[in-house]
Amino acid sequence: MNQYLIVNEWEIIEDSFISTNNRVSEGIFSLGNGYMGQRANFEEHYSGDSLQGNYMAGVYYPDKTKFGWWKNGYPEYFAKVLNSINWIGIDILIDGEVLDLALCKTEVFRRTLNMKEGFLERSFEATLPSGKKVKVLSKRFLSIVTEEIGAIKYSITPLNFTGELEITPYLDGDIINEDSNYDEKFWEEVSKVNSKGKSSLKIKTKRLDFHVCSTMTFDIFQKGKMLSLPIHETSKDKYISKTVKVSCNPDLETVIYKYVSNVTSRNVPLDSLTEKSFDLIEKAQSKGFDYLLNQQADAWEEKWLESDIVINGDLSAQQAIRFNIFQLNQTYTGEDDSLNIGPKGFTGEKYGGSTYWDTEAYCLPFYLATADEKIARNLLVYRFKQLEKAKENAKKLGYKKGALYPMVTMNGEECHNEWEITFEEIHRNGAIAHAIFDYVNYTDDKAYLGEYGLTVLTEISRFWEERVNFSQEKNKYVILGVTGPNEYENNVNNNWYTNRIACWTLEYTLEVVDYLKINNPIRFEELEKELELNIEEMKKWKDIIANMYYGVDEKLGIFLQQDGYMDKEQLLVKDLEQSNLPINQKWSWDRILRSCYIKQADVLQGLYLLESKYSLDTIKKNFDFYEPRTVHESSLSPCVHSILAAKIGYKEKAYEMYLRTARLDLDNYNNDTSDGCHITSMAGTWMSVIHGFAGMRVNQGNLSFSPFIPELWDNYSFKIVFRKHLLKITVNKNEIIISKETGEELPIIIKGINYMVKDILTIVL
Ligand code: BGC
User: Whose CA is nearest to atom 8 of ligand 1?
Assistant: First the structure.
């Protein structure tokens, strides 16, 4: 844990330059707009430790995998969203001496992420080795109005000298991915164009032929006047720059406005990339930086109107929740159904920007409740569009039918090659099915079931049908050789969560079949033919449901995480010396596998997803048993525990777990934020407040709340979008206020009692 950021309600602030924190800050202060994103690298040259990162969503590379021991069924490649053209660069030479914070004495430094208006700002005063001192201010943003546009205002003022500034804005496509498996470079140049003061660089990936074209232009001002200066161009492989020289003297500010457009062959036809990029940049330049920034602020204001959470009485919690919401909105906007949410978003290379079960199990509820339903729908359509690949994947592993979605993917193909994850973490199929339920349950968009839902559910059910086997010994169906959500156990039998989510999928698929038969018979008939649905397989599904094996410990009244779990030495995390933690860094894998310690919610993950099917007593007994054995070494863990603790009434535990998830990156809790931020777990933080503290649920169309307020907070409020209504919910120490901002009157259940919300409803708790 390393707390060096200043607490503020709308900003993340770093107020001194400590180079050892730089990689962490580069992740935390990242910018994104769903279409592209970047780490908070400096504009000017920096020779210190830094992970450069500019990413274009969906532009990836199939990097040849590294493996110790090849296993049949492994994928050939690991897809990674590529570090793309560095378009923020502005090199500064001061009388021939490079401005490089790694070489300077930095006296004043402030880096601010303005979450309210969506920009990054940095200011510093630095003394160069020569003794020359400058003041620099930079501000930049990635437009959420015109997604291809990024703009930078960079100003430099000498404080103690008269001399010459050499300013070089550039585009650099000669970049690397640090995680390149064979130290390969992934890009090659296609072309460069210089025209009417604009420079354009087009590069393409060495495989798959993704093209990215960036075009830059810039204006330089002194004393409010635009300067017309001779320009020296430099062009080398995958690189283009323009250099100008200006005289400067003490307190004379030189301001550079750099505008860049970034287009890709994902959205624009190959032959019009350059033209489109020029067109966009011309428009952006003519509007000017201040105009674009105002537009940006207005657009963010609208986003916040639907997604903000206000917490009074706890500034640190307020900052944290806004940071989480900001990063989620920066990562995914839902406009493109071929995009998804990488666990690190645009903030680092880890996990390759690929899609994990995180999306369905953790992220969906946030987008469902804070934006138009089409945004969440697109996350589902993404999987529908990849169904054929999921079927191929099942075939590749030897199944006769059905679909096994990949654990890690970019285009629907599995990219992960650790057998215990690739082949065994099949529970992901259950989360993908459950997301369909979640979406329809929340939105009531039942048309989705006929359109795409049943098709995906059927193929997943077919996979489960083939994956189970009947144990003569137990006289039950079993699922052998899996890894549950707890990755600190591999190749276990009858992981309760996997068995349960498999059967739940079968149950839900049958329910959807019945629903469509009655409510949409024409479409059902079509689907029956298309999918070759038959009575026999449905009979088999019912038989599996009725005869699935679930391990239980009758004495303790708990579900068994897997066969043999109780044979392990039963120890609690509180009894471990601190020096053992995190066990994934301190212990051998052998020791981890034999221990009873749990990485993340496993049985509890099932009770969380299927909560309505279990009594409070069952949830409590399982929580009391499993939570004390859980080390929460996945960022996805604390949120589920926080929500269940809130449900049970363990308020302090709920708050403790909330703090752990909310400030995970801001306080670098797991000492790994230098890899980037934990974007998918940020949705879990949001859920901890809305589903946890406020106790929001939707059951059979009924919206309900069962709120409490953490001791430290005076009150909290949030907005949700629910079936064409925008609601504001405020929870005070002793009351809940629901105000309906748009939509018809709405029935709401509060702590089990039915109410009708006309405009404002205030209920004393
Ligand atoms: C977790 C997985 C998760 C992945 C990406 C791992 O540490 O155990 O459940 O999908 O991180 O977030």
Answer: 634
At residue 169, the pLDDT reads 98
Ligand 1 close to Cβ of residue 680 (< 6 A): yes
Question: Whole-angstrom Cα distance, residue 342 to residue 567?
Answer: 37
pLDDT of residue 669: 85
Q: Is the CB of 677 under 6 A from ligand 1?
A: no
Output the CA torsion 310→312→315→318 (10° steps). -20
Find out whether the beta carbon of 509 lies less than 6 Å from any atom of ligand 1.
no
Nearest to 560 by CA among 478, 445, 468, 633: 478
- pLDDT, position 739: 97
Please tell me the predicted confidence (pLDDT) of residue 671. Answer: 85
Is the CB–ligand 1 distance for residue 358 below 6 Å? yes
Contact call for residues 288 and 143 (beta carbons, < 8 A):
no
Q: What angle do CA 298, 86, 91 make, to 5 degrees?
A: 100
Distance (Å, rounded) from C-alpha 14 to C-alpha 28? Answer: 10
- Residue 683 tokens, joined: 């949705």
| Torsion of Cα atoms, 6 then 11 then 12 then 16, to 10° | -60
- What percent of the chain stands above pLDDT 90? 97
Give a three-class secondary structure readout of 676-693: CCCHHHHHHHHHHHHHHH
For residue 22, CA distances in Å to 13, 31, 50, 574, 755 come to 13, 15, 7, 33, 52
Helix boundaries (H) for 29-76: none
Say if residues 359 and 350 touch (Cβ distance below 8 Å).
no
Question: Atom 1 of ligand 1 has which residue's CA nearest to it?
Answer: 634
Give the whole-angstrom CA distance, residue 641 versus residue 625: 12
Mutate to test the pocket of ligand 1, among 357, 363, 487 (most ligand atoms within 8 A of CB): 487
Please identify which of the residues 14, 459, 487, 633 carries the catalytic annotation. Answer: 487
488-545 per-position pLDDT tens digit: 999 999 999 999 999 999 999 999 999 999 999 999 999 999 999 999 999 999 999 9
Q: Is the CB of 683 under 6 A from ligand 1?
A: no
SS3 509: helix
- The structure tokens listed for 378 are 């697109």
For the chain, the average pLDDT equals 97
Residue 1 has pLDDT above 80, yes or no: no
pLDDT (0 to 100) of residue 289: 98
Residue closest via CA to ligand 1's atom 11 equals: 634
Q: Which atom of ligand 1 is nearest to the CA of 425?
A: 9
**Is the backbone peptide bond immediately before 582 cis, with ω within 30 degrees of 0?**
yes
Q: How many residues does the chain have?
A: 765
Give residue 2's pLDDT: 75
> Which ligand 1 atom sits closest to the C-alpha of 600?
8
Q: 103-130 burial, b for 16+ CB within 10 Å, e for fewer?
A: ebeeeebebbbbbebbbbbbebbbebee
CA of 678 to the centre of ligand 1 (A): 10
Report residue 316 CA to chain centroid gap.
Answer: 22
Using only C-alpha atoms, what is the Rg of the chain?
27
Q: What is the pLDDT of residue 656?
A: 94
Strand order in the sheet with 715-722: 309-312, 715-722, 725-731, 735-742, 760-764
Q: How far is the CA of 492 from the centre of ligand 1 (A)?
A: 18
Residue 487 appears among annotated catalytic residues: yes
- Ligand 1 within 6 A of CB of 452: no
154 and 258 in contact (C-beta within 8 Å)? yes
Amino acid at 342: G
Confidence class for position 196, pLDDT limits 50, 70, 90 = confident
The SS3 call for residue 30 is coil
pLDDT category at 309 given cuts 50, 70, 90 is very high
Angle in degrees, 0-180, between the axes of helices 521-531 and 496-519, rounded to the nearest 10 = 130
- Residue 670 confidence class, pLDDT cut points 50, 70, 90: confident
Q: Is 319 in the pocket of ligand 1 (CB under 6 A)?
A: no
Q: Which atom of ligand 1 is nearest to the CA of 351?
A: 5
